[in-house]
């Protein structure tokens, strides 16, 4: 669409999925820049998803399809690697390299919010924010109150090797679901990267005193876990409670 031409590449090339009731059968999926000129129906809720360090991939697309097909929820996933000269890292790396990327991921949230006036089919009162691993850091750090709830997958929301400090931005009344593996190879207590650090390997201290926040540790789950049946069930319950 012409109105998207001036958007930054991560957003212009974001993966958008709309549920079937929005565009007819089947659900529509594609890059934001390829969205049809007219999206029928009233404004609807939108989940903004920040992918992990592996970028937009089949895991991300499967998650977005599931949101559309099962929950009837539209979702938008910016493509962080569409940014020219986007920095990369190989763990273990100096923390400054990680933090440079974390700053870019936070900027992607701001990009998406700034573009909402171009998307009249989005209900800005029912926005949700989710992210996995690297993307989860930005979700946890975001300091705005634009989102009705947040989902953090595969990130422990605590000081560890991946950050200078956790620097969480959520308020005590934030509705937040944090789903982690109890044996996460990167952020778990026994991770090789955390062996010299005093970490819990989870968000128990970060979420203390937050009545609307929930931490769930999935036994022996992989690092990328948001498509596991247990994670999907938790996600469905959380989102349904917010959008009821």
Automatic annotation (TrEMBL):
Q: Which GO terms describe its molecular function?
A: hydrolase activity
Keyword Hydrolase, does the record have it? yes
Which InterPro entries does the entry mention? AB_hydrolase_fold
User: Keywords for this entry?
Assistant: Hydrolase
Name listed for the protein in its UniProt record: Alpha/beta hydrolase
